[in-house]
Amino acid sequence: MARTWQTTEVSYLNRYAKTKTLDELAKRFEVDHGEISSKLIELGLVTKDGKPEPEVATDPAIGIYEEAMDRLYASDWKKATALLEKAVETTDLPELAERARQLLVSAERRIDQAKNDKDVDPFLAAVLHHNLGDFKAAQALCEKGDRLKKDERFLYLAAAIQAAQGADDQAAELLGKAIDENPKNRVYAFHDSDFDALRTSGEHDQLFELG
To answer: How does DSSP assign 108-169, residue by residue?
Structure first.
């Protein structure tokens, strides 16, 4: 079974892959070179020692997957579903196939939801974009119509979005406000993987003190 990569792990790769060798990354995540190479190819990243080599990324499904992501970001769920199905059928990369399957489930659920409910809850829509990795769209939904001032759920989600992208200071500020509005957000953040890096940084311990 292909490895399931956490949001914080993807964030780490995006931030530090180019400063590490392939061997260092494989050891850090306790995977073999093939597994880490597949993830780097999917993310379009190259390590300090220039791996994976550009010619490795020849799987035609990569282009299909990228097009599917564009359709997801545009909320073209039907087209995205067709492309994701094609990517699953044609790829030779286990990690890419697994990620495409996960997104396919989300897209199919979104189609079913659209059939039954034309008025989509903006918070649920923002969460979906966050889960798909479309942080820009998720952030836009959080900020629309002064939602950050009116609903602590959007404050918390906006903090998670910033944390997932490595913007620790912005994430801490938003999370602090969310906790002020609803103390339960402190507990949620303590168990939320989006905040793993922020929680272990040592600079914002007060946000995660439960007792």
So the answer is: HHHHHHHHH-SS--HHHHHHHHHHTT-HHHHHHHHHGGGHHHH-HHHHHHHHHHHHHTT-HH
User: Do 113 and 120 form a contact (C-beta atoms < 8 A)?
Assistant: yes
Q: What number of other Cβ atoms are within 10 A of residue 61's Cβ?
A: 20
Query: Which residue's structure tokens are 């007060």?
Result: 206
C-alpha to C-alpha distances, 149 to 4, 14, 116, 145, 173, nearest whole angstrom: 35, 31, 30, 9, 13
Type of residue at 210: L
Q: Other CB atoms closer than 10 Å to residue 117's CB: what's the count?
A: 10
Burial of residue 128 (CB within 10 Å: 0-12, 13-18, 19+) is buried
pLDDT by residue (tens digit) across 112-143? 766 655 456 788 888 888 888 889 999 999 99
Closest CA to 199 of 176, 173, 168: 168
In angstroms, the CA 174 to CA 104 distance is 31
Q: What is the mean pLDDT of the chain?
A: 84
Nearest to 45 by CA among 10, 78, 71, 72: 10
Q: Which of 115, 112, 137 is nearest to 125 (CA)?
A: 137
